[in-house]
Amino acid sequence: MAKAENERAVEGHNSAATKFAKDQLKSIVERIERLEEEKKAIGDDIRDVYAEAKGNGYDTKAIRAVVKIRKQDPNERAEHEAILDTYCQALGIFA
Length: 95
Known about the structure:
Layout: H1 2-55, H2 60-71, H3 74-90
């Protein structure tokens, strides 16, 4: 008799643990979905700003390059520029 009661208690515990895990997983998935929606909205906003820049006569390709450069660590940027300069000189591009 005690064995059956113990098994029911274990099943109840597993059921609660399973429900908790399902609820937690559902919460995680819903948070990711909300963030994906926000990411899409931000992407749309960025495209709008580039369109505005283009409408005002700016070169969006150059703006994208500036944004990329500003994201870089200054030391990494200097190292990259030094390597690029070395390669260009070796190829006679800046003769």
